[in-house]
Amino acid sequence: MSIIKVAILGFGTVGEGVYRTIQSHAAEFTAVLGKKVEVAAILIKNKHKNRDVGEEVLLTTDFDEILGLPQLDVVIEAIVDKEPTFTFLKKAIARGCHIITANKEMFAHHGKELLDLSKKNNVSVGYEATVAGGIPVIQTLRQLLKINRVSLIQGILNGTSNFILSEMREKKQSFAESLCQAQENGYAEADPTNDIEGFDAFYKAMILSRIVFGEEPEWRDVERQGITSITSELIAAAEKLELRFKHVASISREDGYIIASVKPVLVGNENPFYHVEGVENAVNVHSDIVGRITLQGPGAGMFPTASAMIEDLVYVCQSRPAERNAVKITAECIGSSKTVEQKEYWLVQGLAESSGVTLVEEVSEGILLIEAAKKDLDVLAAQQPGICYFSILGEIDLSVLNKAAVTVI
Q1: Per the database record, which ranges form the Aspartate/homoserine dehydrogenase NAD-binding domain (predicted)?
Q2: I need a surface site. Which of 100, 325, 328, 407 has the fewest CB within 10 A?
Q3: d(CA 189, CA 158)
Q4: What span, in angstroms and rounded, lies between the C-alpha atoms of 160 and 281?
């Protein structure tokens, strides 16, 4: 029986998960592919550290030693940072290997170049694990996009931020306390900036945009906001309105332009994101035929991420050249775009009096529910730097308030 030889770059949580899964699911690989899958080499940082791998596996700190193997079919990358990862994967493609990556930052910056290079070398790129951990978002979109026109895709794409917001609400903790808990549980790095400031979700959103619409927005035009401005007081005020904070990435096409944002919003219990808690991720796709579908599952961890990479391993080995790396460019967005910006409901903190917006309710001291157009709030924020304001996705039930009357402040 012929053999597929695999190299794994990195043997941290994800890399080890991939190795263990290949070992434990050998029979399934053979049944699906008609070939055995063997790990030929693993790129490591420390040669002296003891690792529980087979003696036949080459353990090396030198990537060129891996490239020099007599047979090498697939390179699975499970390390961090843009470099040297990007260089390693370019070399692997030039060698004629399929590549699989979980590196969202690197792929957001260099994915197009890797995909173009793979086409020239007649190999495939798997990148399911770059977007939503163990959720098969990309594989689903590859199927959905064959006929359906997607108008909007939204997602909770960062499990760390979602965990922190869940802990703050459920345990009545501060942001700092919940972040500390996330770090103790291994969900947040010692430097959590990428997660809590929205960079991680931003990179994933750009990858999704490329898949769904065939292009990305200008990065500088994307509204990116993390969760550091959300306080215990805001969480409590949202609960009075029967709303929950969620950090949501949103991508759509309007008048030929890609519009994207990554920011905290408020959702009610009719929203599919309302019950997405802890480190779970979720993606909601709006399209013209199937309507709305939601995918939900673990966004991180050894085996959820390994699962996505393992499914990619099957995908790159099975796909025909014409199918490889294919994306659908959606030519139009469903429905007409808004010519006049509509007023929305917002939860606002730090708004001065005489601001000219419609007050619906003072939810708690200094925290207001208002109705306004976003452009008007943007102007106020420029004039009053202390303002924090959060949009509400979907409808809000005003009957939960003490009154439904509105005034202008």
Answers
A1: 10-127
A2: 407
A3: 13
A4: 10
Q: Which residues are CB-contacts of 246 (< 8 A; sequence separation ≥ 6)?
A: 156, 162, 165, 264, 265, 266, 267, 273, 274, 276
Per-residue model confidence as pLDDT tens digits over 20-73: 999 999 999 999 999 999 999 999 998 888 888 998 999 999 999 999 999 999
Look at the domain 3-127 and name its fold.
Rossmann fold (3.40.50)
Contact (Cβ atoms closer than 8 angstroms) between residue 198 and residue 230: no
> Count of CB atoms within 10 A of residue 107's CB?
28
With a cut of 50, list the residues of the chain below it in pLDDT.
Answer: 322-324, 326-339, 404-405
Residue with the two structure tokens 């960079």: 199
Indicate the pTM of the whole model.
0.87
Beta strand 98-101 with 125-126 is parallel
- Residue 132 CB contacts under 8 Å (≥ 6 apart), including other chains: 155, 157, 204, 281, 282, 283, 295, 297, 299
Return the domain boundaries, the chain. 3-127, 150-297, 344-408
**At 328, is the secondary structure helix, strand, or coil?**
coil
Q: Measured at the alpha carbon of residue 225, what is the angle toward residues 224 and 229, in degrees to the nearest 5?
A: 170
Tell me if the domain spanning 150-297 has CATH number 3.30.360.10: yes
Whole-angstrom distance, CA of residue 405 vs CA of residue 403? 6
Strands 291-298, 257-267: pairing kind? unpaired
Beta strands in 131-241 (DSSP E): 150-156, 223-224
Are 216 and 210 in contact by the 8 Å Cβ rule? The answer is yes
